[in-house]
């Protein structure tokens, strides 16, 4: 984007006028929109809903222990198939993100300088999340696909 | 004479009594901190330790639920997580559902399903029999044979 433009309507003979470049068309800084803060919120919402619906199913499948050992084992057997194993990976990823980002929200709310560091806190959440997923993924995939 | 309030005069309280929304907000944070510990422990014991997801069957659950420690642990997990999730879903319904009747219907369904699942889950934990009469000895916990 040109930082210098001729003054609007100025005759071509006048010296070029220095006009500050227009602000980039990114809404950030004053509005809670765009960038880390928004993605933190979007991901927190989506993961929260996903975990909620899993919890509904999970309470019901666990309740089958009260029906019979056979019923419980058949249904829980579905959790050990390859497709569900990958689903569990996604679920654990969602839970870990929601948990770590939840702690970030609490720090932003209660820590006196939390708001100032919200952006760094978000990247910290992603970093810790990635480390935990790197540790969990092989362990779980070995259980699902290996011995 | 109309006057303008002195700067920093606190906003008039229009409603007396307990501020339920504030306590809901506090609950999301307080339960969140406890849930981090409970959920990480839950995932570790069930998916990481031992043989991971493959170890989960009726006998495994029976071993856990016949221990008062896990009974209390799972009760806390059930109540804290389900109420946290349901209250979070209430926020989403209030955010996105603008038709008053649809909103009331959804909020009612949310509350009703929460109460039913809390009662069901709690009953399962405390009325559970790890060694049901007549059950296949192959499927129940090893300590059942010594009863
Ligand atoms: C692992 C520990 C967890 C932590 C630290 C945590 C933390 C939080 C926090 C701080 C909020 C924000 C509330 C607000 O903005 O007022 C929240 C929202 C939410 N949580 Fe959790 N939570 C956890 C587990 C769960 C679980 C297990 C579920 C599902 C059963 C869940 C579902 C939700 C939902 C649906 C919302 C609403 C999202 C929104 O308003 O955008 N959370 N959580």
Helices and strands in order:
The complex is a heterodimer of chains A (147) and B (147).
Chain A (H helix, E strand, L loop, with lengths): L34 H29 L5 H9 L4 H29 L7 H28 L2
Chain B lengths: L19 H29 L9 H8 L2 H29 L3 H28 L20
Helix pairs in contact in B: 1-3, 3-4
Bound molecules: protoporphyrin IX containing FE.
Number of helices of chain B: 4
Please give the alpha-carbon distance between the first and last residues of chain B. Answer: 87 Å
Total strands of chain B: 0
Q: How big is the Rg of chain A?
A: 25 Å
Helix content of chain A: 55-70%
Small-molecule components bound: protoporphyrin IX containing FE
Query: Can you summarize the main beta sheet of chain A?
Result: none
Helix/strand/pairing class of chain B, anyone? mainly alpha
Explain what the structure shows.
- The complex is a heterodimer of chains A (147) and B (147).
- Chain A has one domain: 3 helical TM bundles of succinate and fumarate reductases (Up-down Bundle), CATH 1.20.1300.
- Chain A is built from four helices and no strands.
- Helices cover 65% and strands 0% of the residues of chain A.
- Chain B is mainly alpha-helical and 147 residues long.
- Chain B contains four helices and no strands.
- In chain B, helix 3 packs antiparallel against helix 4.
- Chain B is elongated and about 85 Å long.
- Chains A and B meet through helix 1, helix 2, helix 3 and helix 4 of A and helix 1, helix 2, helix 3 and helix 4 of B.
- Protoporphyrin IX containing FE sits at the interface of chains A and B.
